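Reviewers of the previous submission asked for a worked example of the structure-prediction workflow described in the proposal, so we include one complete record here. The input consisted solely of the amino acid sequence. No template or homolog information was supplied to the procedure at any stage.
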Amino acid sequence: MALHQRSSRTPPEELRALLGKLPGVINGTRFGGEAFFFRKRFFCHFHPTRECLFLETFVWHNVEAVVSEVPGTIPHPEYGGYGWVRLPIDSDDAVSRGLRLIETTYRYLRTTRRVSIPKEEFLQEKLGLIKEKLPEIAVKVKESKKRNQLVLEARGVSDYEKADVLLDKATRILKGPRNHR
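From that input alone, the workflow returned the following structure tokens.
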């Protein structure tokens, strides 16, 4: 692809097309603009500014890894080091990096799940049970006053259907057999 300056604040069709082809991804609106969702979770949008167009995606706790993996990507300045990254889309080269950022974000999206549990219902033994029965699942716990936020990640699992099954099992261990999606 030839490298040249893009002047448009309109999302490149290559990026929109990839997002539209990803299984389970639907488009909608957020912040007055086009946004993309997976299982009702907002994870990606285009943010036009006076200077350029940004592709912004949610990558969980993987901000540093994504910044290292996709050149030109930076942590979102308003959200610090957690969650959101942005990539200026200002050249054909940036579009190809945007494609890579979308694929990377989708991988994390399909292999990561957040579970929120009231503090009084959280049992440490359940983490041990996940480690024993589901060694592919890594768990990070963030405690707050009323709830524990657990981020479950199916590490090394590239089959998204298998990741869904593992994450469902881990969620059932943590929350019980009720509907959790």
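The two ends are 41 Å apart (CA to CA). We consider this example representative of the routine output the project will generate in years two and three.
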